Amino acid sequence: MGLLKTLLAGAALAAFATSSVAAETRVTYKSAKTTSSYYQMAVQIAEAMKAGSNGEIIVTVEESQGSVQNVMEAKARGGDYVFTTPPVLVKLAQGGKAMFEGKGDPKFDEIRALFPIPSLTMHFVVRADSGITDFADLEGKKILIGKGSFGAKEGEKYLKLFGLEGKVDLADVELSNAVPALKNGQIDGFVTAGSFPAPNVIEAAASTGVTVLSLSDVQIAQTKRTKLVIPAGTYAGQESDIVTTSLPVVAYTTTAMDDDTAYALTKTYWEQKGAMGEGAAWWNGVNEGLIENITGKIHPGAIRYYEEAEIALFAAQK
Fold first, then answer.
1. How far apart, in whole angstroms, are the C-alpha atoms of residue 258 and residue 26?
2. Pairing, β 25-30 against β 242-254
3. Deepest in the core among 9, 183, 272, 308, taking most CB within 10 A?
4. Ramachandran assignment for 173, one of left (phi > 0), alpha (psi -120 to 50 degrees), beta (any other)
5. Is cis: bond before 106, omega within 30 of 0?
6. How far is Cα 296 from Cα 124, in angstroms, rounded to an integer?
7. Per-block average pLDDT, block size 10, for the chain (318 residues)?
């Protein structure tokens, strides 16, 4: 009888262990370089998923060299893979265009969106005492746009689009030195792209006093980017809204992920977003309106959550 009890106890323990493992969902979240704000966001999401699911969702954050790599890996990864990228790159991958030319794969068609994260937001920051109030005033001024980054490429593109190519003195200083360079008068302004409120803009506004330039609707149309409004009061001394451009960024997975996992991830993300915003202000720039920027299809599990929450989706997203 003692042996039977031992066997039954062992079977019960094994069953409990199996159910515990089954209840735990493990996900790999591939984001960005460890030095970027998007890697910090990934860590915050991992912490929020664990807290919001009482430890049932465990997210492992992986460093990435960029959004293109994230999309490319969708071909070979399994149902536990979540990655971040602008929607435009998913569209290019599915069409085999640009950086994905000759690298197309049917698996790209299986990519599905979960939820938006903070957008890459363009900031044209100038000293408050520089006399610069619009883009035309940048002529003859010394502006830092950095090198190699999305913000640097966009900044260069915008100067060209707005007739300022060759008319602005571009400072040969690293973007990491932008705030001290602005403070000591080496430059009149700098261009940066990141989630808002951007830490370097917060610092510049608090220490030097800055104006962040707004774009007109015509200028926004020229850039072919998404319009974004930074509300008044986001930065010190900012008395009115800033109208600028952004590159939406979204968390994706593939159809290999089961519906229940996609549902749990999406539900927990939105339920924890407020708490994340208390620790990092960039989450406060995310709202249901950003779902409109998802140009491809949304995962069925995520759709289930949005329908429960009565969040409207476009027919093309389903």
1. 12
2. unpaired
3. 272
4. beta
5. no
6. 30
7. 45 41 81 90 97 96 94 96 97 96 96 97 96 96 90 94 96 88 95 90 94 97 95 94 96 98 98 96 93 96 98 96
